[in-house]
C-alpha cells in the first residue's frame, strides 16, 4: 500500500517523497480514505503513530482541490485544536511540509507569547488554523478569529485536553463552529468522559483504533535497569559517558525533578536543559531548538511539555522516572525509532516504581529485558528478574557471577573496549 493507492494527489505525494515517506503507517492507511470521503472520524491512537499526517493530508487535499484560496481573502477552512504549544507548533510545521507544493497556508496560535505576530498572520488570511484552546478563545473574543467558514475541525489528544482542564473551552469552541462540517476526534485513551465528549462533536463517525502494542515500534529496543532512587543520576551519567551518547531525551515525572537532573548533570559538565510548564514559552522553544541542533546533549522533559517533540534521528529515550499511567510509557518510547530509524528506550526502576512497571508490562504485553550488569546493581535490595533475554535481542541482560567491587572495576576496565561497540548500552 502506498500513499498514491490511498488517493493522495500528486503535489502532496511530491512533498511526502521529499520528507522520505514511502509507505503509510497503519493509522494513515486506515484514516486517509475515510477522511477523503468526508466522513467524521473517531481515532484512538498514541503519539508516534503518524496521526498528524493522517488528518492533515486529507484536509490539505480538500482545501487545495476546492481552490478556496483563489477567491479573494483566505478564510479559515480548517481548525486543529491541540492541548500544548509544542504540539501545536509541531503540527503547524508538518502541515507546512505536506502543503509545500500546494497553495494552502497555515498558522499557529498559542498562549505565553505576545499576540502581535499571530494576529498579523490572521489578518493576512490562512486556510488552516492550529491553536491551543486558551489563545483561540481569547482571539475569538477580541474579534480576530471567526469560525463561521470552518469546514474541517480536528480535536487532537482530547484526553490530555480534559486532563488539563480545557473541557469548558472546548465546548465553547465547538458551539462557535458551523453545524455542517467534517469533524475529527483523536485521543490516546477512551474513558467514558472522552466518549461522551466525542458523541457531542461527531455525527456518525468511522472508528480507527491503533492498539498500544502496534504503537510501540518494533524498531525500539527496550531495556530496564533496576536502580536505587539515589543512584539514578549516577547511572544516567555512567550511560552517557560510557557510550558516547550524542542526544538523549530524558523523562522526569515532575518539574522539580527535571530541574534537579539538569543541575546534577551540569556538575559533571554534561550540557542539559529542561522543558516543563514552569518555563516560559521562549525558554522552552530555545531548549528544544538547542536539542534539535545538538547544541544540548540532554533534554529533560515532563510528559505534558514533551507533547509535540519530534526530533529527527533521536537514538535514545530514557525514562528516568517510570510513569504512573502505563499509556504514557508508550507515548514516551514512541519518540525514538520513528520512520526508518532504529532506537532504544531505557527505563530506570526503583523499588517504589515496581507497581508502575507491572502495569506497563501488562499493557504492552511483554517483559522488558533487564540489564543486570551495571555499576549500581549491587545497591538494589532485590533484583526480581535475573534473566529476560531472548534469542536475537541485544545482550542487555547476560547473567554474570557476582564479584567484589574491586574485581568488577577490573573486569569492566579490561572488557570495556571489546564490549562497548557490540553492547552499546549494556555496561
Description:
By secondary structure, the protein is α/β, with parallel strands linked by helices. The protein folds into two domains: 10-210, Rossmann fold, CATH 3.40.50; 219-420, Rossmann fold, CATH 3.40.50.300. The chain has 16 helices and 13 strands. It has helices at 10-18, 26-36, 51-66, 85-98, 116-124, 133-141, 158-163, 167-175, 192-201, 212-215, 232-242, 255-267, 281-292, 326-333, 354-364, 405-420, and strands at 41-44, 78-81, 106-109, 128-131, 152-155, 182-187, 206-209, 220-226, 248-251, 272-275, 298-301, 316-319, 343-349. The strands form two sheets. A seven-stranded parallel sheet has the order 3-4-2-5-6-1-7, with helices on both faces. Helix 13 (281-292) links the parallel strand 10 and strand 11. Helix 3 packs across helix 4, helix 6 crosses helix 8 (167-175) and helix 14 (326-333) crosses helix 15. The chain is globular, with a radius of gyration of 23 Å. The two termini are 41 Å apart. The model is unreliable at 386-422 (pLDDT under 50).
Features:
single chain, about 425 residues, Rossmann fold, seven-stranded parallel β-sheet, six-stranded parallel β-sheet, 16 helices, 13 strands, about 40% helix, about 15% strand, globular
Amino acid at each position: 500500500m502506498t500513499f498514491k493507492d490511498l488517493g493522495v494527489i500528486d503535489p502532496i505525494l511530491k512533498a511526502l517523497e521529499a520528507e522520505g515517506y514511502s509507505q503509510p503507517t497503519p493509522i494513515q492507511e486506515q484514516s486517509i480514505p475515510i477522511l477523503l470521503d468526508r466522513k467524521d472520524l473517531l481515532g484512538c491512537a498514541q503519539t508516534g503513530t503518524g496521526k498528524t499526517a493522517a488528518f492533515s493530508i486529507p484536509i490539505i487535499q480538500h482545501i487545495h482541490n476546492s481552490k478556496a484560496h483563489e477567491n479573494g481573502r483566505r478564510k479559515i477552512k480548517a481548525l486543529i485544536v491541540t492541548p500544548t504549544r509544542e504540539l501545536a507548533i509541531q503540527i503547524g510545521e508538518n502541515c507546512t511540509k505536506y502543503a509545500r507544493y500546494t497553495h494552502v497556508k497555515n498558522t499557529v496560535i498559542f498562549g505565553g507569547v505576545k499576540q502581535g505576530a499571530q494576529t498579523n498572520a490572521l489578518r493576512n488570511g490562512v486556510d488552516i488554523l492550529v491553536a491551543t484552546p486558551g489563545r483561540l478563545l481569547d482571539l475569538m473574543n477580541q474579534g480576530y478569529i471567526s469560525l463561521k467558514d470552518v469546514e474541517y475541525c480536528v480535536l487532537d489528544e482530547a484526553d490530555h485536553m480534559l486532563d488539563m482542564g480545557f473541557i469548558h473551552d472546548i465546548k465553547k469552541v465547538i458551539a462557535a463552529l458551523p453545524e455542517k462540517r467534517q469533524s475529527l476526534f483523536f485521543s490516546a485513551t477512551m474513558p467514558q468522559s472522552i466518549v461522551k465528549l466525542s458523541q457531542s462533536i461527531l455525527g456518525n463517525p468511522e472508528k480507527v483504533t491503533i492498539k498500544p502494542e502496534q504503537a510501540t515500534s518494533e524498531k525500539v529496543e527496550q531495556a530496564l535497569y533496576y536502580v536505587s532512587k539515589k543512584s539514578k543520576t549516577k547511572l544516567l551519567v555512567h550511560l552517557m559517558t560510557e557510550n558516547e551518547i550524542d542526544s538523549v531525551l530524558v523523562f522526569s515525572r515532575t518539574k522539580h525533578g527535571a530541574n534537579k537532573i539538569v543541575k546534577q548533570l551540569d556538575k559533571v559538565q554534561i550540557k542539559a536543559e529542561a522543558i516543563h510548564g514552569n518555563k516560559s514559552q521562549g525558554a522552552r522553544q530555545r531548549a528544544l531548538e538547542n536539542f534539535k541542533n545538538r547544541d544540548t546533549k540532554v533534554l529533560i522533559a515532563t510528559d505534558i511539555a514533551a507533547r509535540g517533540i519530534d526530533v529527527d534521528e533521536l537514538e535514545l529515550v530514557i525514562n528516568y522516572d517510570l510513569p504512573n499511567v502505563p499509556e504514557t510509557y508508550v507515548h514516551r518510547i514512541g519518540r525514538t525509532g520513528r520512520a526508518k530509524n532504529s532506537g532504544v528506550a531505557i527505563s530506570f526502576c526503583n523499588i517504589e516504581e515496581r507497581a508502575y512497571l507491572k502495569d506497563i508490562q501488562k499493557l504492552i504485553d511483554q517483559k522488558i529485558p533487564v540489564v543486570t550488569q551495571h555499576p549500581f546493581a549491587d545497591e538494589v535490595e532485590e533484583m526480581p528478574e535475573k534473566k529476560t533475554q531472548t534469542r536475537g535481542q541485544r545482550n542487555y541482560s547476560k547473567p554474570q557471577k557476582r564479584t567484589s567491587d574491586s574485581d568488577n572495576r577490573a573486569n569492566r576496565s579490561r572488557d570495556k573496549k571489546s564490549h562497548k561497540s557490540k553492547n552499546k548500552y549494556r555496561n
